[in-house]
Specification:
Length: about 450
């Protein structure tokens, strides 16, 4: 009780201090944006992995009910269809109510879905619970949900800050997945769902209600911790001006209608669709595939967790690189990571070697997971403004279609062909298309990243 009381007092102190910043009473000794990043780190570590845990629930549910893989894998795809449909509404909801409402809403939906799934006996039961509520509800507190407000807090260090926040997914995965696989093996998948649901309600909901904030202006601050325009504004304006390549584009008050008329918007959409296709196809089917080729369930679960762990470094590094060398180059490295990942998986069936497994883990995490930071930073670089939530919501809706198609088409291909060879080949082609589309979107021709700004 004393510890709980102390934690509550600390929460109240920080919350009061944050409000004090807004009213000019006193200032925190650090930029509040880093509090926002820490809360996002924890939220994503639990929230995103509650969705990814479907990869661990997939084998025992298949074994218990004996359904074909395509029908059960459709659960994940249906969830992303729902995510695609509701993402624009989440964008509008974020603009109106902020993350202190949006993120807890997602946490409640996901927890409800996990608990309800334990009563499922038919495929459609899982479509509604693990699909609509868990996968669909997780979008509120996933990469997409956080991308709706995290870029507000940083400009010069946008990629790095996003990478740090998103790295919580990797720490969460290496913590949650081994425990969850052990829980599934000993207590069953239903017990595991109940425990995970309780963790989400007990941690994610209060953390975001108390600490999270929408934008620095809410606290009288500027991005990157610039406290007052008269103190640093002249220098910052100079940096921003030198970063601008297309002044007319930057001066545009972007609305969804205007964005839809640009080819850059559509190339960005194609790039994002392809990126999420290859990401979620491997994420859902990786565990089952590794078990199929003779790897133990425990090792397969550990591999999934290690991908997330290496992704911690990957997201931070690729995010930082995107601030220094450009979004296109960083995105290319990330997607090449997924391309070679699929190549390694294919070779492992023909030529089983431990080093191939670890190479696959490293490529997927160190490079592939960095996709998320470029995904989050690039639209904000291009379409920042009052209507950004709606614009990004439409982009994310389209990208969710890729996340929905990837697992479903990969499972369907297996059911038809009896192996993953064609599915892996298709995913490698999609990687190349996604890279090409990002270069055609060409964010470098609108605004230079800080590392590319000419020095005076």
């Amino acid at each position: 009780m004393r510890r709980a009381y102390a934690i509550l007092c600390l929460m109240n102190t920080i919350d009061s201090s944050a409000q004090g910043v807004k009213h000019g009473k006193h200032r925190l000794p650090f930029f509040y944006g880093w509090v926002v990043v820490i809360v996002a780190f924890i939220t994503m570590g639990i929230g995103v992995n509650s969705r990814t845990a479907f990869s661990l629930l997939f084998p025992p549910i298949l074994d218990e009910f004996g359904w074909n893989r395509g029908s059960l894998a459709a659960t994940f795809s249906i969830g992303f269809v729902v995510s695609a449909l509701i993402t624009p509404a989440i964008g509008m909801m974020m603009d109106r109510t902020g993350p202190r409402v949006v993120l807890p809403t997602g946490a409640v939906l996901v927890s409800t879905g996990l608990m309800a799934a334990t009563f499922g006996t038919e495929p459609w039961h899982f479509y509604l619970t693990l699909g609509v509520l868990v996968v669909g509800g997780s979008i509120f507190m996933s990469y997409i949900g956080h991308t709706l407000f995290l870029p507000n807090w940083f400009f010069r260090r946008r990629g790095l800050a996003l990478g740090l926040a998103f790295a919580g997914v990797g720490i969460g995965s290496v913590s949650i997945f081994p425990w969850m696989q052990h829980s599934i093996d000993t207590a069953g998948w239903r017990e595991s769902c109940w425990v995970l649901a309780f963790i989400i309600l007990a941690v994610v909901v209060p953390l975001n209600v108390i600490f999270q904030r929408h934008k620095p202006e809410d606290l009288g601050l500027l991005p990157d911790g610039d406290e007052a325009p008269d103190a640093t504004g002249e220098q910052n304006v100079g940096v921003v001006d030198r970063a601008i390549v297309d002044q007319a584009w930057i001066n545009t008050e972007w609305t969804l209608a205007l964005a839809l008329r640009t080819t850059r918007f559509w190339w960005l959409m194609v790039s994002f669709i392809g990126a999420l296709y290859v990401w979620y196809a491997v994420q859902v089917h990786q565990t089952r595939y590794l078990i199929d080729i003779g790897i133990s369930a425990e090792t397969a679960a550990l591999a999934l967790g290690l991908v997330g762990l290496t992704g911690v470094i990957g997201q931070i590094a690729i995010g930082h690189l995107s601030d220094r060398m450009g979004r296109e180059w960083a995105f290319t490295l990330a997607l090449l990571g997924f391309l070679v990942t699929y190549g390694c998986l294919y070779l492992m069936r023909q030529w089983p070697q431990d080093w191939l497994l670890y190479l696959m883990i490293g490529l997927q995490g160190f490079l592939g997971y960095g996709t998320s930071t470029v995904f989050a930073a690039t639209p904000a670089d291009l379409f920042a403004g009052k209507r950004y939530g709606v614009i990004f919501g439409v982009l994310a809706t389209a990208a969710s279609a890729g996340a929905a198609l990837g697992p479903w088409l990969t499972g369907l291909s297996f059911d038809i062909q009896g192996d993953y060879d064609r599915a892996f080949g298709l995913a490698m082609v999609v990687c190349l298309i996604s890279i090409a589309a990002m270069w055609l979107a060409a964010p470098r021709k609108v605004r230079l990243v800080p590392g590319r700004v000419p020095k005076v």
